[in-house]
Each structure stands twice: as structure tokens, then as C-alpha cells.
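Quick one, T. Sequence first:
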Amino acid sequence: MATIVFYFACFCLVVAITMVIPGLNTIVTPIWAAFGKGVILFCSWSWGWLVYFVKIIFSAHIEISRHLILKEEEVDVRKSVED
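C-alpha cells:
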């Protein structure tokens, strides 16, 4: 955990230094903006997959509960459609 904090602090220091130096600021600002947008897109992509997996797990539990509670005739939809 200390290593992650150290790397994050070093990253923030590098960003701060590049934003203070006038000539470097003009060159590096679009790079940091693209990096930040990439991080945001990655977080939204990860969140989408997390929601997808939670939804799949939740629906699987509902389906198992439905099969345990209801009778076989009530679960099998094909029989009710044929009748």
C-alpha cells in the first residue's frame, strides 16, 4: 500500500512540475488531458461491466429461487403456451 501511495505522490509531483514550467506547460497540457479522459473512460467501462455482472448474478439467484419455490408445471412456460 505504501508503494501505491508513493507512486501516486510521485505522479502528482510530476504533474505539478510540468504544469509550472511555462514552455513545458503548453506541450504537456493536452497530454495530461488525454490521460485524464482515458482514466475516466476506463472507469466508466469498468463500472459498466460491474453493473453487468451484478445484474447477471442477481437474475441467476432469482431464477434459482423461482425453480425452488414454484412447481415444475408453473416454471415450464412451453406447457402453458401449448394448452
